[in-house]
Amino acid sequence: MRVTLLGDLTLRVGAAGGVGRPLAGPVGGADDEGPSCYSRLTNEWFCADYLRDRGAEVADATVAHLQITAAAIVLGLVLAVPLALLARRRPRLEGPVLGFSTGLYTIPSIALFPLLVPFTGLSATTVVLGLALYALTILVRAVLDGLRSVPPEVRDAARGLGYAGGRLLLQVELPLAMPVLIAGLRVATVSTVALTTVGSLVGHGGLGDLIADGVTTNFRAELLTAAVLCVLLAVVLDLLLVVLQRLLTPWTRSRTAAVEVAQ
Amino acid sequence: MRVVADAWRYLADPAHWRGDGGMLDLLLEQLLLTVTALGLAVLLGLPLALWLGHLGRGGVLAVNVSNVGRAVPTFALLALLVTMDHPGTSSFGPYGRAGLATLIALALFALPPVITNAYVAVRGVPPEAQDAATGMGMSGWQRFWRVELPLAAPLVVSGIRLALVQVWATATIAALVAGPGLGRVITDGFYRTDYGKGIAGAVVVALVALVLEGLAALGQRAVTRSSPAAVGAAP
Asked: What DSSP element (H or E) covers A9?
């Protein structure tokens, strides 16, 4: 809980992290070390002491951030696949499905979360749901494009071998759609990691909560640490998805290799 | 559901729209911000991207700028700019508190879609068209101005349209760091537990976003219709 007085001067009353910031001097350390690099007097951007003293808080925020992002992506994917299949089965529905999700994407995240609040309250669910709706837009298109990228002759050959319905989809079409699908998944994941920060509006923004606190209390080390972690998280998840794609579609790797050799 | 009724009551009260700091005032402020930032991004990014596309160089940069733009949280960049000594929260002309910081962040986030689309658009001009232009004796500049640019126009405009939607969204987020614009109605509502007000602000922001997107779509259609790319493809 925060009580803000006169703009930047901020009192912390039993904040979740506990102690707030020392005016000067290291927390519980020897006095001869001078002010800690994150005290209000120095307020440095880079501060190892901050990570040492408040590491647990940073770790918690990172985990919360990951949980929200992961839940949103999974939910988005779970919704996107049937929608894409429906749009493919009934081409007349494709326009409305894509139009609806694109319209949704137009609405700024900071406006979408409040619009969900009457239904889901000030909870992490609001953030997850909002982010899932954004991811949905990218993913529906990715699944559709992915399924379209399956060569028709492969589909015909599979039918000739007796594949049909769910088996055709799961064993032939989805694996071949994987490169396009994962490309979409990467875009969705990276932007979801970034957008999660806005969830701090309803108090569930993962690292965004630290950024918000960093702004209101003019706490540079906290702000920069959270911002850098956000970008790192996006990069790491993106790399993981690249690895996943290589594992799931070993044939694309050998094909690129073959092309490289041929050149 | 009571908050929905509260939101409606907030929207229906003309006092909340008029006057200094009223919603109309904030709406104009945010529109001004959006237009300025988009203009800056187009002015800086478009010539660079078109030129790189014409030369066929710098593709890695032009495409990766979008990936970077996606990974950096808008909120984080705004927060950093506001917390720095410069530009900080200093007022900037009609753009209000933290106006300069907001403008910089908005323009930066408008650059990736503008640059990537314009570059890809010029690179996507069919080589036959370029060869034909050169064969007709056009100089590099003439080829760019009379052949590449008209053919690339639809995709270039679609990038500007994407940027517009992005800038409007970012401008709203500026309120999370005490910046100017309509987002302030949302954050005020939420930070002071007046959720009706917050939701009312969100409704206005969302509606304006949809209107802007609609107008941009109309503009894009007009450009696409007049582009030789469409004329050539017409049945």
From this structure: strand A9-12
Domains held by chain A: number: 1
Residues B190, A194: C-beta atoms closer than 8 Å: no
Do the domain assignments include residue A259? Answer: no
**Which residues in chain B (47-76) have CB-CB distances under 8 A to chain A?**
67, 70-76
Phi-psi region of B84 (alpha: psi -120 to 50; beta: other; left: phi over 0): beta
pLDDT tens digits for range A58-90:
999 999 999 999 999 999 999 999 999 999 888
Ranges of chain B whose pLDDT falls below 50: 233-235
Print the domain residue range for A159. 55-252
Which residues in chain B have Cβ-Cβ distances shorter than 8 Å to A193?
Answer: 71, 73
Flag whether A15 is in a domain: no
Token pair recorded at residue B17: 């729209």
Give the CATH number for residue A115: 1.10.3720.10
Cβ neighbours of A25 (radius 10 Å): 16
Assess if residue A26 is contained within a domain: no
3 state DSSP class of A4: strand
CA distance B233 to B235: 6
Find the closest chain A residue to B1 by CA distance.
A118
Which residue, among B82, B74, B217, B152, has the nearest Cα to A108 in the 3D structure?
B74
Residue A46 lies in a domain: no
Minimal CA separation from A258 to chain B, in Å? 23
The gap between the terminal CA atoms of chain B, to the nearest Å, is 53
Is the per-residue pLDDT at A8 higher than 50?
Answer: no
Could you tell me the maximum CA-CA distance found in chain B, to the nearest angstrom? 71
The span from the CA of A188 to the CA of A137, in Å, is: 9
* Residue of chain A whose Cα is closest to the Cα of B79: A215
Where do we find the tokens 């440095």?
A: A44
Determine the pLDDT at residue A216.
87
**Main-chain dihedrals φ then ψ at residue A40, nearest 5 degrees:** -65, -20
Q: Is A41 exposed, middle or buried (0-12, 13-18, 19+ CB in 10 A)?
A: middle
CB contact under 8 A, B79 and A223: yes
Q: In terms of CATH, what superfamily is B2-229?
A: MetI-like (1.10.3720.10)
Return the residue in A123, A187, A201, A240 with the most chain B beta carbons within 10 A, the one to mutate for interface testing. A201
- The reply to whether residue A118 touches residue B169, judged by beta carbons under 8 angstroms, is no
Chain A residues whose beta carbon lies within 8 Å of the beta carbon of residue B195: 114, 117
Quick one: pLDDT at residue B22? 86
Alpha helices in chain A (DSSP H): 48-89, 91-106, 109-120, 124-148, 152-160, 165-167, 174-196, 207-216, 220-248, 250-262
